[in-house]
Structures are given as C-alpha cells and as structure tokens.
Amino acid sequence: MIQMWNDQSAPSLDDFAHLAEAAFAALPAVFRQAAGEVVIRVDDFADEDTLADLEIEDPFELTGLYSGVHIGERDAMGPAAEPSRIFLYRRPILDEWCERGDVGLAEIITHVLIHEIGHHLGLDDDQIHAIEDEDD
Hints:
The chain has a single domain (about 15-70, about 80-135), classed as 2-Layer Sandwich (Zincin-like), CATH 3.30.2010.
C-alpha cells in the first residue's frame, strides 16, 4: 500500500527545537561541557541583516550559524560577552533533507549543530571539514 502523506505536515519550529535538544543531549559529555552555556535557537530562516552580512542571496543556502565570541577569544577579566548562540534554520535544513533523501532529518540537524559548536570552540570551516573527513 502506498502512503499518501495527506495527513503529514512539516516539523514545526518546536519539533526542530526538540530534535536539537535531543541531538545535543546525545553528544559525548566532554563535547557538551566544552559547548558550555551556548544557546540553541531555531528559526525558519536567517534574518535579512544576517544574510546581507554574509553576502548570501538565497536564504536556503544557510542551514546554521554561530553567533558570539568563540571560547579561545574570550577574556575572563573583561566585560561579559554577548551570549553565544547557535541558530538552526528550519526551512533550509528541511530543503537539504528533502534534496538528499539519504539521511534522516535528525542526522542533518545533528550535523549542523556539531558544525556550529565547532565554531563556538574556535574552529574554522576548513578545520571542521578536515575533522569530518577523518570520520568518513
């Protein structure tokens, strides 16, 4: 029997938040501790200012973003930094999930979350990709 999917809807922002919380909870304890008090936020898309700052024209190109001062640049004696935040963008993640079709939604959310935690820890994209390549 073919499932018609007529009674299904896309996961909501709250659903994504729960998936992100579960993904974070499933990370090794040492990784969660290193992430510290980072705030995880789920939005449909990055806002216009963020996209403009990153010179991104298509909002579907940005699945996640780290905002804050990474751990290596913090000054313990200086003024309190803005809270470190990780943004997960629901619509671009859903789009990637549909396009790929070879991994589960939770796996993509976990991947984006880990990538952004890497930025929180001070790693750049090249370093994060090198680590990911070692795991493959």
